Amino acid sequence: MTKPRILLADDHQLFREGMRNLLQADYEVVGDVGDGRQLVRLACELKPDVIVADIGMPLLNGVDAVRQLKQRSVEAKVIFVTMHTGVDFAVQAMRIGASGYILKVDASEELTRAIAEALKGRLYITPSIAREVMDALMQGPDNGPDEEPWTTLSPREREVLQLLAEGHKMAEIGEILHISARTVERHKYSVMDKLKIRTNAELVQYAIARGLIVPP
User: Fold this and answer.
1) Tens-of-pLDDT digits for all 216 residues of the chain?
2) What share of the chain is helix, strand, coil (3-state, %, to 5)?
3) Separation between Cα atoms, residue 204 and residue 91, nearest integer Å
4) CB of 177 within 8 A of CB of 154?
5) Collapsed DSSP state (helix, strand, coil) of residue 45
């Protein structure tokens, strides 16, 4: 019997190794990556059955990586394993089509259960926040974490915001995104205008609050 194929994505190698050791008896771990851009590339190439990913990853966060995969018709089930305990992060994950959301502190006990539920077409949310998440989802998107001004940003602007907050220079961002430095600069000022942000420090604080980057 063919084992379900799993792709792991987390910026901490030791955590990826721990997940691999936990899963490899029952699943085929086809690969592991350390940032969101690698996740998109490898998921499109390998077509795994399940993706196990963190939210806060370098170059492209897990949520925007999954958004890109959905646009490319990658049909893998997605389980987020994260340190973010806030309900708003879980709601955002569910709204983009994730099948599961568990906390890293509970991963050793809940990950295999979450994957099994996802493969059956069911949702799994870590029990400590499940009720709050479901209540928030039932309230509709106007009352959730995706309210203005965050939703005014385009996918490209979110990418630029994250890369700027990570400390990349304009030219570096241009190379990563395959656009000119001048285009990066235009996106930057559009982001700052939409979010009413005036300084780079405020931009970093906003990115941290949104889970785009991990606090230094």
Assistant:
1) 789 999 999 999 999 999 999 999 999 999 999 999 999 999 999 999 999 999 989 999 999 999 999 999 999 999 999 988 888 889 989 999 999 999 999 999 999 999 999 999 999 999 999 999 999 888 865 544 444 567 788 999 999 999 999 999 999 999 999 999 999 999 999 999 999 988 989 988 888 888 777 665
2) 55, 10, 30
3) 23
4) no
5) helix
